[in-house]
């Protein structure tokens, strides 16, 4: 039998590529940079070929390195799925995540439905932004996640959509086409924020980010205080203290996707998806 490859070394190679270099991979794996380098060196010694080369932009894989990574990811995924199946026997827990937008109307239904279908399993939930939820599902920390999807190729299965509405404190809003619009939006990278700016500018309004907030509560509070206009997905009623602005351009709808962990029980994903779809269009 051939000498076995070390899966930890394969995981390190994947981290170097995914995080764009040895330093960032070391930080993500909570290892020293010398340990990361050692893992790559040991892989190269075991296989007798160069896998990674450094260039001005960071690191790049050789042809052999790319082949190893492609096949290695399958090995790592199989390993993780096997471990999770045994872990589930010791810790029968179902971990569900959702964006804050889905928490008030969608999350209660999906949790109650899953609890009814799996009465012997403990159900936990996490609230976060869509990119972080997708990453958590991929890492195996979540079994299912409800995310917002503006792009057609977003991860997960489309289970419905939510209307995007311009909301502000009563009486606040642009008086005429072309008037400037102060926006209240999420901080950092946010697809809905980018969509809001694009739609306003396309309709002739000058869009200005007046307030940035880290949470949905922060966005709603700032809009309710009259600090600006917010573009938000609305599943049920408009939040108290806000009203919809009809004189701004139609923003369309945002998809709601169900992202499932690889190797998850297909019945669990189907049960959750049906529960959400019953509440959406």
TrEMBL record:
Read off the Gene3D superfamilies from this record: Periplasmic binding protein-like II (3.40.190.10), Winged helix-like DNA-binding domain superfamily/Winged helix DNA-binding domain (1.10.10.10)
Q: Which PROSITE patterns match?
A: HTH_LYSR
| Single annotated GO MF | DNA-binding transcription factor activity
- Give residue ranges for domain HTH lysR-type: 5-62
Q: What Pfam families does the record point to?
A: HTH_1 (PF00126), LysR_substrate (PF03466)
Phosphoprotein as a keyword of this entry, yes or no, is no
Coiled coil: which residue ranges?
Answer: none
The superkingdom listed in its UniProt entry is: Bacteria
Sorted alphabetically, the keyword list is: DNA-binding, Transcription, Transcription regulation
Q: Does the keyword Lipoprotein apply?
A: no
Tell me the protein family, please. Answer: Belongs to the LysR transcriptional regulatory family.
Protein name per Swiss-Prot or TrEMBL: LysR family transcriptional regulator
Natural source organism: Gordonia crocea
């Amino acid at each position: 039998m051939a000498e076995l490859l070390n899966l930890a070394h394969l995981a390190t190679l994947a981290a170097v590529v995914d995080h764009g270099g040895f330093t960032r991979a070391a930080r993500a794996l909570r290892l020293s940079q010398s340990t990361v380098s050692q893992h790559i060196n040991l892989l190269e010694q075991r296989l007798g070929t160069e896998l990674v080369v450094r260039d001005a932009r960071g690191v790049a894989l050789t042809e052999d390195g790319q082949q190893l990574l492609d096949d290695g990811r399958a090995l790592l995924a199989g390993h993780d799925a096997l471990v999770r199946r045994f872990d589930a026997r010791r810790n029968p827990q179902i971990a569900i995540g959702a964006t804050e937008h889905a928490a008030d109307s969608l999350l209660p239904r999906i949790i109650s439905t899953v609890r009814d279908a799996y009465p012997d399993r403990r159900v936990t939930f996490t609230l976060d932004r869509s990119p972080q939820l997708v990453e958590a599902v991929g890492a195996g920390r979540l079994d299912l996640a409800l995310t917002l999807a503006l792009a057609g190729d977003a991860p997960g299965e489309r289970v419905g959509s939510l209307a995007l509405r311009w909301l502000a404190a009563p009486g606040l809003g642009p008086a005429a086409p072309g008037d400037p619009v102060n926006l209240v939006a999420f901080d950092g990278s946010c697809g809905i924020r980018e969509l809001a700016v694009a739609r306003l500018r396309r309709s002739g309004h000058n869009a200005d980010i007046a307030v940035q907030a880290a949470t949905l509560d922060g966005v709603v509070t700032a809009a309710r205080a009259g600090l600006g206009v917010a573009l938000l997905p609305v599943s049920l009623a408009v939040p108290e203290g806000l009203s919809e602005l009809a004189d701004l351009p139609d923003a369309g709808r945002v998809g709601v996707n169900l992202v499932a962990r690889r190797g998850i029980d297909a019945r669990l994903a189907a049960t959750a998806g049906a529960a959400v779809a019953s509440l959406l269009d």
